[in-house]
Amino acid sequence: MPPKLPMPLCRAILLADQIITDIETGKKSLIGIYSHVVSPKIPCTKNISIYGQLSDMQGEYTIVLEMINLKTGALVHRGNLGPVVADNRLAPVDIVMRMPCRFDSHGAYEFRLMYEGHVFGSREISVVAPQNQGANNNGQLEESEGRIEVHRHVVIC
Q: Is pTM beyond 0.85 here?
């Protein structure tokens, strides 16, 4: 029986339109980071790039990423990231995944990173209908062709 691996520690989970990896340095650039999706129509599908930074890992891991509808508790998507190999427990490990996400209702969803059935990191995303009045947390609201676009941490679906 192989030795039990340490449970990973999640340092960050970010959602973005695109993640670019520099071929020379391996550095990641996240383009269009957001935490909300505005969609006038449901269902909607949005390709989401997911970045995670993990640590406290030593060995070879199969990490599971789940997307859950928090209102219903339904599993929307499940995918395996692996093998994820870490040879230095103190060094950060970057993981990147791009997946099409189908949102069947407005409300809260959660991305969960799991190892051996245990959640060790999560990130919530909200799917909301556009509003014709009011402002976002920056006080910036713009209407364009009948759509409302909020200028901070939001993407239109």
A: no
